[in-house]
Amino acid sequence: MKLCVVGTGYVGLVAGTCFAESGNDVICVDIDEAKVEMLQKGGVPIYEPGLEELIRRNLAERRLWFTSDLVAAVRASEICFIAVGTPETEDGSADLRGVLRVAEEIGAAMNGYRVVVCKSTVPVGTADKVREIIAAGTKHPFDVVSNPEFLKEGAAVNDFMKPDRVVIGTRSQNALALMQDLYAPFVRTGNPLIVMDERSSELTKYAANSFLATKVSFMNEVANLCERVGADIDLVRKGMGTDARIGTQFLFAGIGYGGSCFPKDVAALLNTSKSFDHDLHILEAVEAVNARRAIALWGLAFKPNTDDIREAPSLPIIQALLKEGATVRAHDPAAMEETKKRVGNSIRYFENNYDTLKAADALAVLTEWNVFRRPDFDRMKSLMIHPVVFDGRNIYDPRTMAEKGFVYYGIGRGGSGGKREGSEELRGKS
Ligand code: NAD
Predict the structure, then answer these.
(1) What is the mean pLDDT of residues 271-290?
(2) Whose CA is nearest to atom 25 of ligand 1?
């Protein structure tokens, strides 16, 4: 079969490569020309076990191509996948601008019947919007399919090649037959291909991620109770998880769920339910419990007055916090765009530094921007769950912080106080 996959992130690149590996001709499209150039040469911008080898092999065997020319890719394909990002917006809803723009471009490029498949995680009703947009741009027949992706970063190739299930949401028998053909090699070991309507398929993805997030928050609440009552959460976990109805996965207590999917998908499902005047009480609690394990970062740039984040301490700190499962809420007056290029939407960005503190467990000051030097400490304290400040630049006076009721950690001050105004001179001026 001839396919194109628009968006070569974790999902698009893995899906496109695995479809090529199963014998299809696949054109992967991205607007990021540097990424396309790298991929054309066999370079891989992300690390996923087994992926590089598969890309090299399928490039060499001329089943896999990379391009930024969407029009040519759509014209050469029977099935077009949309796999661009759907990050969280300020109100928690999913940002659909990328998906809808690609739908418009596909509609304008079509020169015959196409199946357009939404693989991005999108709220209920998006397939209808995609259909309307494509219909406005073409006279050719087409079908829209919802086909959410369940792969996990770190095991993406294996998850895609051997999925627990494939969900196909469509009302078209023709599109269904093509999708069944396409996925036949991936479900031949007996794992199900589940067919449903588009709305159920769109909701399945959010419900699945929200349920996993619920397990994490539930275990974190039980862990808090363990501390109070003198029980051991690890033993409780083992005792619970051996019940087949419960299962052993996603039962680890920690500092909460994070990463590029759970926080945004929980927020998006809550937003969808609100827009239908419906309350999801359990999920609200899940988000609130998780927010208690949020860390705010003030400053991302390596020094003030720049958007440069090369070798900035913020990057390893972000990686370490995400690895531990923290939700990271960051603000920097200039470096948020640059940081986004490096860590994507795995952390949340805020235009205002106080907004990062809402329900945060702790604040770490990583860059000594002037705007952070004289904050409203009372406001800070009222927003935070725990008034804990890690002052990585020694810009606050430990005595003032103690008086204001903060648990304060500076660098090399031994709790004796004394204030240093800045540390640019220690880090050069470049
Ligand atoms: P990503 O941010 O890693 O990649 C998105 C890619 O799309 C980028 O390379 C970007 O340059 C490209 N892009 C953006 N707009 C474009 C356009 N107009 N034309 C062409 N290319 C464009 O995203 P991701 O992690 O692969 O996620 C994609 C979708 O899949 C999201 O909806 C996400 O929620 C969902 N998802 C992600 C995972 C995961 O583990 N990452 C798992 C399941 C589902």
Answers:
(1) 94
(2) 10
Residues 65, 16: Cα–Cα separation, whole Å: 9
Q: Which residues contact 245 (CB under 8 A, 6 or more apart)?
A: none
Which residues make Cβ contacts (< 8 Å) with residue 391, sequence separation at least 6?
A: 365, 401, 408, 409, 410, 411
Please tell me the predicted confidence (pLDDT) of residue 294: 86
Instruction: For strands 327-331 and 407-409, give the pairing.
Output: unpaired
The strand order across the sheet containing 142-146 reads: 64-67, 25-29, 2-6, 79-82, 114-118, 142-146, 166-169, 193-196
Name the residues annotated as catalytic.
261
Query: How far does residue 150's CA lie from ligand 1's centre (Å)?
Result: 13
For ligand 1, the distance from its centroid to the CA atom of residue 100, given in whole angstroms, is 13
- What residue's CA is closest to ligand 1, atom 3? 9
Contact 273, 280 (CB under 8 A): yes
Which tokens sit at 342? 């490096």
Which of 50-54, 179-183, 382-386 is the least confident region?
382-386
Q: Which two tokens stand for residue 301?
A: 């740039």
Q: Span 68-89, mean pLDDT?
A: 97
Backbone φ and ψ of 61, nearest 5°: -85, 5
